[in-house]
């Protein structure tokens, strides 16, 4: 993508775009951050939609995979050169989000075991969108739900 493509599609002047995003990398980083916020919002909505805490992990995982399947940027993640973004920062943001959800309303900072599980979940997801698994089948929600119940949920339960 070029800045010219963005300017044309956004209907703004080139000068306006360059004032806000002096470098192409700045534009890409802003896009990634926006999509990350949309992604986290979709996952949070899925968790909040269930009253059963045992279903929360599975619902979050299915929402994350669904978002990745439907988002053009994430669908291409494993097929293009790495973007000029700070992946470590995105991992940190994702892991903190997950740790806070696992920790819930409990006082204080999430304990180390919760933070470790959250970090594993964030890294797992990054890997799954970059190199989708064949087992479980990334396109089969029932299989992904079973995977979440049998593998991910017990990790959360042990952490709390």
Write the layout of secondary structure elements.
Blueprint: H1 3-10, H2 14-20, H3 24-48, H4 53-70, H5 72-75, H6 87-103, H7 112-130, H8 141-159
Explain how this protein is built:
This protein is mostly helical. Helix content is 73%, strand content 0%. It has helices spanning 3-10, 14-20, 24-48, 53-70, 72-75, 87-103, 112-130, 141-159. The longest helix is centred in the N-terminal third of the chain and has 25 residues, at 24-48. It is globular, with a radius of gyration of 18 Å. The relative contact order is 0.11.
In short:
With 160 residues, this protein is mostly helical. It has helices at residues 3-10, 14-20, 24-48, 53-70, 72-75, 87-103, 112-130, 141-159.
Alpha plus pi helix count: 8
Task: Return residue spans where pLDDT drops below 50 for at least 5 consecutive residues.
Answer: none
List the helices and strands in order.
Answer: HHHHHHHH
In total, the number of strands is: 0
**In this structure, how is the largest beta sheet organized?**
none
Helix content: over 70%
Round the mean pLDDT to the nearest integer and report it: 87
Strand content: under 5%
Alpha-carbon distance between the two ends: 44 Å
Question: Which terms summarize this structure?
Answer:
mainly alpha
